[in-house]
Amino acid sequence: MRKSPFGSISLVCVATTIAVSNPSRAQSASAPTKTWSVGAAAMWSASAYRDYDNEALPVPVINYEGHHFFLRGIVLGYRLLAAQNNELAVIASPEANQFLARRSDDPHLRRLSDRNVSGLAGVSWRVYGNWGGIQATAQKELTGHGGGIMTDLSYGYTLQQGRFALMPGAGLNYSSRALNDYYYGIRAKEVARSGLAPYRPDAAAAPYLHLGLVYSLSRSWLLIGDFRLTVLPRTVEDSPMVDHDFTASFLAGVSYAF
Description:
Radius of gyration: 19 Å
CATH class: Mainly Beta
Mean pLDDT: 86
Order of helices and strands: HEEEEEEEEEEHHEEHE
Number of domains: 1
């Protein structure tokens, strides 16, 4: 018997600021069969940076669940343990934050150096059941952007009614001083050319709320939506690069589950 399409979309995490592998979506067995889902979506994200040009972007929606390897949006992983509604895995993923000086209309920020997407690797653990799911991750930056640490702890739950599923969740994301300094600090070499004061943010945690939506058109075709709101910590909000106290992202698209 072919399983419900919600089982496949539950493992799809489409991109950037979406809560990757929301544990409320994990309803696969301890030894899952191989499954694929592919699709496309459009995403708009409000950057925290001052006078920054926010653009809607096309993003792929790709998910693969193998016996050991998995791909969930932007997260590549390998299961070390999958038993009794628990999963322990090693993972690699990008930190989707980015600052391109040319996209800011602020004359001071246009004289800063770019901040690029970082690569992270570490471990992930999640436990799930009828009550929802909890996921914890810990990763280290490996691409020469300060070598910082990022951790995340989240809870989510899936509400399903007929063809419609609603997936609310909440979490807390922690970034070390090194990562915050790379993305929001003003370095000594940038002070003279930008006219901004030097700034070094501290390590901090940012709470967030997340809401996923799925509507099943058929056994395979799904309409998907996603919203995430993150409250910025004071040490990030106080950066001369930033003029917001929160960020938000929206996504809508379609996916086909094999």
